[in-house]
Amino acid sequence: MTAAVRTTCPYCGVGCGVVASSDGAGGWAISGDKEHPANAGRLCSKGSALGETLGLDGRLLHPVVDGRQASWDEALATVADRFSDVIAEHGAQAVAFYVSGQLLTEDYYVANKLMKGFIGSANIDTNSRLCMASSVAGHRRAFGGDVVPGNYEDLELADLVVLVGSNLAWCHPVLYQRLIRAKSERGTRIVVIDPRRTATCDAADLHLAIRPGSDVLLFNGLLAHLGRAGAMDQDFIATCTNGFAEAFLSAGDDACDMDAVALGCGLTLGEIQEFYNLFTGNSKTVTVYSQGVNQSSRGTDKVNAIVNCHLATGRIGKSGMGPFSVTGQPNAMGGREVGGLANQLAAHMGFTPDDIDRVGRFWQAPRMAQREGLKAVDLFQAIEAGKIKALWVMATNPAVSLPDADRVNRALASCPFVVVSDCVGDTDTTAYADVLLPAAGWGEKDGTVTNSERRISRQRGFLPNPGEAKPDWWIISQVAARMGWSDAFAYQSPADIFAEHAALSAFENDGSRAFDIGALTGVDYDTLPPTQWPARKSSGGTARLFAEGGFPTPDARARFVTVQAATPAMSASAEYPFILNTGRIRDQWHTMTRTGLVPRLSSHIAEPFVALNPADAATLNLTDDDLAVLRSAQGDATLRIRVTRDQPQGQLFAPMHWNRHFSGNGGINALTAPVTDAISGQPELKHTPASLTPF
Ligand code: SF4
User: Fold this and answer.
1) What is the C-alpha to C-alpha distance for residues 29 and 35, in angstroms, rounded to an integer?
2) In which band, very low, low, confident or very high, does the pLDDT at 1 lie, cut at 50, 70 and 90?
3) How far apart (Å, rounded) are the C-alpha atoms in residues 641 and 628?
4) Which residues are CB-neighbours of 364 under 8 A, at least 6 positions away?
């Protein structure tokens, strides 16, 4: 019997530890790792079904070139030659990578190094752009770095947990279980701020069904109220922050009194007072925010409106206190650490001349990118415009998951050369590939991931690579070698790559530089226990940051950001009278290429749907289970109706998961608009004007 292997769940950003052990009958038993700090043995429905996703049905097992099985040699040479040809003829800006929070940190590191240091372009963006980009931008504005100050334990130690735009019960189930247990043991008060009533509201002491997009007004009103109530931490403001006076004055102008806030947020005065009094009266407060905040044309401002309230009260980095962004993907944070976004460099550096120079010298890079690259939505529009002539998609399915998906499909169809590396052979995106590269999947590959509380854990393989599948880091390194850079990409293992990544975090770094926040010198890949960065040799991991200031800004102070309430980019109209919101359901993950393999996960919700309020259903003469056509300016989909009081009037909700394999149409993102936050570039996936008519 094979010894048990300790690894990490490949789904959400909770990052639960998993133990895989042989069941003695040729299969694998999956259980929660009792020693992992994130989950202490717990798993949700998706994680506990992982053992049922390990079959080879649908796997991509061999390289494919122009539709026929090919050798690795031919496939790798084709990719290297075509990318080199495009770069020679059109320049480095004419090629791009679109990567994924499903990649391991080591895969991400190598892809970034190749594109940003050797090809000389920063046109590498990631599906994390759809997930966390607004929180990243908000944190960089406020803290000076892409840092989550606290940890999961804070949700258990808080007296008040405020959940903003987060259906934690379905999207981060094990963290929700921890919160519910704390509530039953110590009476934690829970406030849910979400336009619709979700499963998370079952545990809420107060549900604020705010008008979509009014979050900034609500938190500006809170900041003004904290001032009126004398609830500020004047000492923290004076010694650890800048910009308070401007932000406070502006918030007061924006949210001049509670009546104005209530009106603007679509709430009663009593609801506003109750929330503000709860926040004012509970110093141990954690505010959790997720996609309802991030996936917005004002997402960055929403993040800063929340963070302002925590800075004003000094509730940051102390046990049971802090603003807390929960990540959607298993490795969205690990990818960010190595510069996974088009506007970042590795080790938390940006595109300043100093950072470009430092990373370039560390890599001994022949052609460092000199400026930020194209963010996801802009990247695919550049492909459609003919500016990008070679694209490599790794471990993601943009034909379904990006907004205005039909346009993305047209862009992929028009791109002269498309490479897709994936474990799955037939996705909506692989259909456009000139070259398909079979990647090792969960249970096969080795590396690290970082969860929402900055905790780095190992993913470990316990299965052989099937067919000719290879790890992503190997595939990228082989292409780099064939493009002429074999020495710089001569990695023999993920451990080699992690060691280089850790060395970069310490390069010319005496601890005083801003990027020291991501120090990894105290992490040993081989023996790695789940560890929170920064992890220095001298001090090990770090549970919390910033309780006494020490922000990674030039003067070590946090910055209040002046933000003003604004409506979402698009409004309902006579033609499109509803607002369409999209999101996850409990038992599926992303575009269902893995969870769709497990029949029991479909017993919770078996098919795509659109949910609406009973009054709207009556007006449209629709009843439960009817079919209806949902339409926006971008596209349409025919969906089953769910009538529920959980939806406010005028608002629709549809899950994001189903693709053409499951639904017969292009999925809900055929309807969502390619409108983005001007700072973060994150798309507004939760606010698309739409119409609904009986089928
Ligand atoms: Fe996996 Fe997230 Fe479920 Fe944990 S909560 S088992 S990380 S999907």
Assistant:
1) 17
2) very low
3) 7
4) 488
Spatial separation of the C-alpha atoms in residues 321 and 307, rounded to whole Å: 12
Question: What element of type H or E holds 658?
Answer: none
Look at residue 665 in the predicted model and tell me its pLDDT: 60
Q: Distance, CA 595 to ligand 1 centroid (Å)?
A: 12
The amino acid that residue 217 corresponds to is L
* Phi/psi at 77 (5° precision): -65, -40
Ligand 1 centroid to residue 18 C-alpha, Å: 9
pLDDT single digits (tens) 383-409: 999 999 999 999 999 999 999 999 999
Describe the crossing of helices 299-313 and 133-143 by its angle, rounded to 10 degrees.
40
Residue nearest to atom 2 of ligand 1 (CA): 12
How far, in Å, from the CA of 558 to the mean position of ligand 1? 32
pLDDT in tens, 121-160: 999 999 999 999 999 999 999 999 999 999 999 999 999 9
Ligand 1 — pocket residues by CB below 6 A? 9, 11-12, 14-16, 39, 43-44, 46-47, 172-174
Ligand 1, residues 7, 8, 14: which to mutate, most atoms within 8 A of Cβ? 14
Q: What distance in Å separates the CA atoms of residue 623 and residue 643, rounded to the nearest whole number? A: 7
Verdict on whether the full-model pTM lies above 0.95: yes
> In the numeric block, which tokens belong to residue 237?
């403001």
Both tokens of 695, joined, read 């089928």
Fold of the 133-326 domain: Dimethylsulfoxide Reductase; domain 2 (3.40.228)
Rounded Cα gap, residues 518 and 502, in angstroms: 9
Report the topology of domain 5-53.
Answer: N-terminal domain of TfIIb (2.20.25)
Query: Using one digit for the tens of pLDDT, what is the confidence trace for 635-686?
Result: 999 999 999 999 999 999 999 998 765 555 668 999 999 999 999 999 999 9
CATH class name, domain 578-674: mainly beta
Question: Residue 120's closest CA among 355, 483, 368?
Answer: 368
Q: 101, 74, 81: which is closest to 468 by C-alpha?
A: 74
CB 313 within 8 A of CB 232: yes
Question: Residue 15 CA: which ligand 1 atom is closest?
Answer: 7
**Is residue 590 within 8 Å of 401, Cβ to Cβ?**
yes
**How many angstroms separate the alpha carbon of residue 190 from the centre of ligand 1?**
22
The residue written with tokens 């907004």 in the block is 403
Count of residues in the chain: 695
Q: Are 661 and 596 in contact (CB under 8 A)?
A: yes
CA triple 391-392-396, angle to 5 deg:
120
Inter-residue contact 381 to 388 (CB < 8 Å): no
CATH 3.40.50.740 correct for 64-126+333-350+362-427+438-532: yes
Of the candidates 668, 70, 175, 240, the one whose C-alpha atom is nearest the C-alpha of residue 428 is 668
